[in-house]
Amino acid sequence: MSKKLTEEKGAGKHHMLTIGIASILLFLAGILVASLFPKKLTYIPPQPNELRGNSVSDKIWMWQETILDGEISMQPTDQNAFTLTFQPDGKLNLTTDCNGGMGSYELDAHSIAITEIATTKMHCENSQEQVFLQHISEVDAYTIDQGELYLLLPMDSGTMIFTATAAANLQ
Hints:
171 residues; nine-stranded antiparallel sheet; 9 strands; single chain; alpha+beta; 35% strand
């Protein structure tokens, strides 16, 4: 009986050895096939929006609406009054339904900060300027899609939507 047990243990070792060798051979065959038919893996990083590129800096962006909490909360009474013009040097020109102004902007990939906003100080009854300027100063991200600029307010609280028009001789 001990001889039979010894033979079964030997057969088990032989079987495990065969499986181990087969696994190694399969692994090596996979490496060989992969080296004969290499598959090129090319990483293409996502392309950031380029506010300083020709696609944006050669346009005047007209404010269409601001959506807060998924609902249209504000539309300009004059669609042509509120504009943003991003200069290649990081300067920003803007107009409202009451005043003109300027500021600065910085961007990194999809984030944007609009700062140092200064406007003329004319007072206009029923102007939407203060809310517009408040939202512009709060934006922290942007995206451009099909000719529209989306300026995103913090924590997904809202979106300002602008459409582009060609601008001539922007300085």
